[in-house]
Amino acid sequence: MRLPRRPRLIVPVMIALAAIVVLILIFTGLYTEYLWYDSVDLTSVFSTMLVTQGVLFVVGALLMTGIVAGNTLLAYRVRPMFGPSVLGAPHGADRYRQSLDPHRRLVFLIAMGGLALFTGSWAAGQWKTWLEFANATRFGDRDPQFRLDVSFFMFTVPFLRQVLTFLFTAVILSIVVSAIVHYLYGGFRILNPGGVRATRAARVHLSVLLGVFLLLKAAAYALDRYELVFSHRGFVHGASYTDVNAVLPAKGILAVIAVICAAIFFAGVVRPGGMWPGVAFGLMVLSAVLIGGVYPALVDQFQVRPNQQAKEEPYIARNIEATRKAYGVADTVIESYPGEGNPEAAQVARDKSVSGVRLLDPALVAKTFQQEQRIRGFYDFPTSLDVDRYRDADGTVRDHIVAVREITGPPQGYNNWINRHLVYTHGYGFVAAPGNRVTSDGLPDFDAKNMPVEGPLVTTTGLKEPRVYFGERSLDYVIVGGKPDKPQELDYPGNDQTGQANTNYTGKGGVPVGSFINRFFYAIRYGEMNLLLSRDITDKSRILYDRHPAQRVAKVAPFLTLDSDPYPAIVDGRIVWIIDAYTTSNQYPYSQSRSLSDMIRDTSTDLRAITAQPRDYINYIRNSVKATVDAYDGTVTLYEWDADDPVLKTWKKVFPGLIKPRSEMSAQLLEHVRYPLDLFKVQRDILSRYHITDARSFYNGQDFWNVPDDPSSGERNIKQPPYYLSITMPGASEPTFSLTTTFVPRQRAANLAAFMSGDVSSGPPGKLRILRIPASTKIAGPGQVQNTFTNRFAGELNILGLGKAQILYGNLLTLPFAGGLLYVEPVYVQAPAGAGQEPYPILRRVLVMYGNKVGSADTLEEALTQIFGDTGQVQRPAEEQREQQEQEQRELSGSLASLIEKAQKAYADAQAALEANPVDWAKYGEAQKALKEALDELGRARAALPTAQPTVPPTAEPTPEATPAPSPSPTG
Prior knowledge:
Blueprint: H1 5-39, H2 43-77, H3 93-100, H4 104-124, H5 127-134, H6 150-184, E1 188-190, E2 196-198, H7 200-227, H8 241-270, H9 276-304, H10 308-326, E3 333-336, H11 345-350, H12 352-355, H13 365-373, E4 379-380, E5 386-391, E6 397-404, E7 406-407, H14 417-423, E8 427-428, E9 430-434, H15 456-461, E10 467-468, E11 478-480, E12 489-493, E13 500-503, E14 511-512, H16 516-526, H17 530-533, E15 542-544, H18 549-556, E16 561-562, E17 567-571, E18 574-585, E19 594-595, H19 596-600, H20 603-607, E20 617-618, E21 620-630, E22 636-640, H21 646-654, E23 659-660, H22 667-671, H23 677-690, H24 695-700, E24 705-706, E25 723-727, E26 736-745, E27 754-759, E28 767-772, H25 782-792, H26 794-801, E29 806-809, E30 813-817, E31 820-830, E32 841-850, E33 853-857, H27 860-868, H28 878-915, H29 921-944
Parallel strand pairs: 3-28, 22-23
Antiparallel strand pairs: 1-2, 4-7, 5-6, 6-9, 8-10, 11-15, 12-13, 14-15, 16-18, 17-18, 18-21, 19-20, 21-22, 24-26, 25-26, 26-27, 27-28, 29-31, 30-31, 31-32, 32-33
Helix pairs in contact: 1-2, 1-16, 2-4, 2-6, 5-6, 6-7, 7-8, 8-9, 28-29
């Protein structure tokens, strides 16, 4: 019974409507993306990607459907002329054929359409592989096994592998689909109890397809030979002894066997039937098992393992050389450093890096920035701040803790569409504090602060535009600039009757949405009718979206891997975000492959809400590009940093004009360029093993290093992050802004093994230096130092804690100084929350250690004095010194008892103030002041006592007594 005409039209009409909706959505995405690229003047990037992906989509879809559909139609066309009965009695397949026949064209079209869509999408996704292959740049280095240029493995091999994958898929699908068609239409039958009966046409067709499959298998075996340089079989990555002496010849033999077997299948075209195809198939499987699997396993078991060091040594040497080149550490300067020194006080005073060492921990003081500079609840700072350097009015360069005040959205209860997208549109202000200076209350001494922004740093940098429309918290779209005569965008809280100062965006960023067409398509993109109906959107309005700095750089340069920590800087009077960008690959021959996310993980990545790095494995990385994003208008600028990188040269051919030469970087921008954070973490991970260049020593592994656990985190197996600070390296006359880390021996992870720093003071790509401590010198590592601090100053810290207050250790910094190593650690006190205020830390103590001497004081200068004192005086005999020390101790004992009693009373008063209901904050402040005075006097009295110091404890683990609460220690 046929359906009435109207119901029969419903299905095609619904399909047509669905197709129209899909096309509109696709066009909306493409059109709005084009407008975005046009807003940053980079439509060439969009068109190159779109055309490349479009061509690959069409080519991939046509080739795949052409091959599979052609074989499907061929199998149907050569079906038996008199139907399936020519092969015998009716078969169960006949029922399936009879059900399929009325709809075979529809099924065929749907299947081929789906295949075309899937394959075309897959092919379009390989656009980067194709462009790198088509624009490949030679490296000038050859791999040690095949003597081919590295570019062959970096660009050609991945492309050939994708081509083979495509062809294998096409042939396998053709075999499967053709076999099904032949089966359904009587081309062959599976007999019972066994055997197959087939027509000549079916045998010929399937024999040819199987022969083509084996030819592709031969090509795959040939390509496998080159991919042995990425093998993980041996002691290290790269072709091992077994790979070179067993697998390599085996792959060649298997390729020849595959060609022979393919010829046997092709012979079935001339003489179909017989047992030869079965023999060929069996020969191929048996050869793959015996030659490709068993033989290399026997060589590995009986030749390599009994004498692995001697067999693998040449291949370990290849891996060491390739890995050091691929990760950019081949030129690392490794020098012996005594680790012990005896500097004079005058030398300490002259060293700018010691006197100016950064005390503010960018993780801990984030809460303090919130408390002091948040101004209103709808503003926010990152959970961990950044470290940069700026000049004072007198020209002195100081490390600074910096952040921008970003907006989080409307206050609670006011989160409507207008407020969210038209009023609360941007953050405001650059906030900074010198890293080595605090107020008398232990708070950051801000030199850029408040709203409107003010302070000495604002004057010296010439900051003119403090508004932040593009930032790390800018995740939603906003519409700006619509009413110049009646501004409605909240600029900053004011003191007038309205309680706020408004502004109107005048930048060039964003896409104009004054026209109905643009508003229509953005309304579809965001599913928001207000974009069409709101009268607050005028012909001058612009929509800003994709506002996160990393997101913008990723869109204009999708071939780059971005650093996880964009940081703000004042450059030429504007706030800009600086992002380090890398070219990465996992195709460098013989280089060790590691997970990028694993290499950069430490306490800072666990704490930060940062751009997560992918779990992709890499074995090549270069900091090839420095990117900037203007915080006001969103302008994205890419600067070439490593001009020698062949991968970057390849992409410059793809996108000419996208990357500007380094010579166009302004002088102010160059002042804020730093050694890349993620690159440094990757390189320290590699150098923990690959500082060893001798293959035999590398195999033994006795001199491998580890990055120490973060002693201030209170957790095991979480690495200490590297720290940004200005240090004076041996042989240098002035401090350089560096990224620093330490190493401890892998076998005995307590003593210090080495100190590493990276800086860009000498220009791109940067310089790495390692100060290696002699094995005979026992220098305390970070864990031991933390243990010493905890044990030595437990009493002082317990008194500072005042019961409910929390003691937080800041970042434990390490500085090379006068042949030794100086450790500096700030200690913060965080009072409990109260009176509607969140708790925030205050710097109360500075702990220092040099050799076996330790010091603790309110300021760094006082702590250094406790350690170094005045060593310029004439030394007296030991007996005379001992007598004087004993006399001083007797004189001070009474004073110490009095001071301890005074501290205890202040502690009791503070406790009583905290336990009062409500809390008596006035008395608590007075008690804190009295406690501070008592502790200061105790510190001076203790410094006057004999300076015999305890030896460093043998363990790096803090004792339970007086252990402060764990505190995060991110990169600073």
